[in-house]
Amino acid sequence: MPQTLAFQAMSQTLLQLLQPGQGFYVPVYQRSYTWGADQIDRLFEDVNAGLNRAAQSPGPPTFLGSVILFEGRASVAPRVNTALPAQVLHVVDGQQRLTTLLLILGQLRSLVHGEVERLEQVPSRNTTEDWILANLTMLRSQLTTALWVDLPSAIGAHVRMPRLIRQASDKWGDRTTNSLYLSDVAFYLHGIALEELEQAPPATPATRPHLKLALDSINEHLSSVVSGSDEGSMLLETRFVADLAALTRLLPLVQAEAAIDPSALTSEEREAIRLGVFAQFLVSQVVVIDVRAPDEETAFSLFEPLNTTGQPLTPLETLRPLAVTAEGGLDSYVGSRCDRAFQRVASYVPDELEATERSKRVSALLTSFALGQDGTKLAHNMLEQRRYLRGAFDQAPTLAAKQIFVEGIADTATFLTEVWEEGDSPFITMGTAADRLSLEVLRASNHLIVVPLLVRYYERATQLGTAASKKDVRAVARAVAAFWTLWRSSRSTTSGIDDIHRTLIKSGLAATSLNPLARSSTAVSDLPSVKEVRTALRSLLATKLAVTDAASWSSLVNSQPIYETARILARYILVCAHDDAIHDSKAKGHVVRGAAGTWRTRSLEVWRDNYSVEHIAPQRKRSTDTSYAPALYDEGDINRLGNLTLLPPDLNNLVGNEPWPFKRDVFKMVSKTNPKQRVAALKKGDLYQLGAKSKALLESAEFIPFSKFIALYPANTIDRDYVAERGRRLASLAWERLWADLA
Questions:
Q1: How far apart are CA 592 and CA 596, in angstroms?
Q2: pTM of the full predicted structure?
């Protein structure tokens, strides 16, 4: 037998969707009403286009998207049982569109109601006026049914309860003392009821700027509809009244006995007909797809593939109602630990973000959080993320555990906002130059897999607030940056690095007795020491790569075309290698470590000096150039560490594919700090033949010590031996700095 579908989808006109006794309930995790003029303009354009088609001939209805709903009277909270609609439909998708349509119907009803009252006062109506009045009277009744849920037992205006309310902001009630209508749409609909049934002053949206913006946009469009001022609209000339079939199709409630001569209509009659035609078309020929799910889980499983408009509802927003319930309801939730945590999350994922960027940020946040929480490798899929959050939250045994769960998300969001993306947090800026650079290298490499580990120590530092705990955050960042550099630069791919971090989080490392780092298994007070983390990372290098000393790592890194496989880390290795470096007088063209403070390259300032990686022997040498040994190209040495240096991009472009003697002269010149010596150097050899722009560049270039060491290499040919020896020396010097962060 065929499997029964878990949901139903049916086309519904607005009158069919907004049935008597049926209320719409927007859960607390849904965003506030945010549609503005652009979205409202588009909706009116779609309706007007459909109206033009309908005036010409019977045809398909105008489709305005889908709504995803599920029934649930029992989950309305708080509620007044005597004022609960017979059927309550929770809105999972489509609330922005549904809210806008209700606002439009409300404004239309006010216009229709006013026109009915005007026509009723006409002393001797003609046949056309009687026909218009009959249609508008029935239309007013339809609009009334669409906007409110009737509650005959209620007091005063509460006999008409707003068709749609929002959890937390609103509450259906049968009297003033037990009802609450604070959201824009409920406030608006309740205000109309107050105005009409209690003759109270009309509710004004003046103190509600977004509601006013939406109503102003709607009124502008409706004014154009009534006046017939829209270019290209069939309402402009009202010629359709001369065609009885078209007239009956557009105003079917009370059929006209005969066609009408358009020229015989007064301006008031034209406006009333336009109003009636537009309103009738909107409620009876505009269609939405009503996707009805049996429960919330099924509704959300449908949401992601069916959502094609607006901003997708993120898994974070579907977690909030669970937190509200856990905290004891809305009254207890406000100001609670979970509420404060979600407010912090909003700093990383603000409501105003464009949909694509919002989805990207939420995915980055949740994948990092899930890994840090329990080692889960979370997919970049909204449904899977939602299921993970719900399941893990429900499994937390106590309220305190649930609060820690939500705070873990907030801590991850805060770290990403204040540390990872900005790098200006005191946790980092109070550290050394190498501390700041380590984080920058991780960030520049987009090495997000380290975020969960860093967040765990960040959490401890924020809780303790001590200088030592903050120093630990920086020390762990340096350790994982060093590990990443040594690991990645010795391999041709990133394969395996994610699994290593996931194992450390989930299980720790038995070989070094490192306890798991996951939030679910280890409280921040019991996190392993920085020394234990370093020991584990050193052990992994030894067991996975057989890297235990400078020689073993140098052999691996110099066998890689590192410029191709890890360009950012090639740059970092060069920076580390040249830290406090001086020229080796016993081996010209090479460097050795000098005294501390000689030349500090391992800093964020040097990193940001816009240095780019330059190939000493160019990637594509000229066919006639003999200053670079052919074996360099035959054996693939061009992209290895020993053939790389650092130059500003403008100088990089200048020397480019030039022969080695020319490059060496340029390197010598920019290594001079005396301007007179630079000018003198320009007059030597090929440099004197440079154009004025190039000469000016060389004269004004900053002192570049990276070039100084290479410029002292005396041979007129760059060969494999020089590149190999230089690579070995640079790797050894870089190892000293990197290994110190793991020692």
A1: 12
A2: 0.71
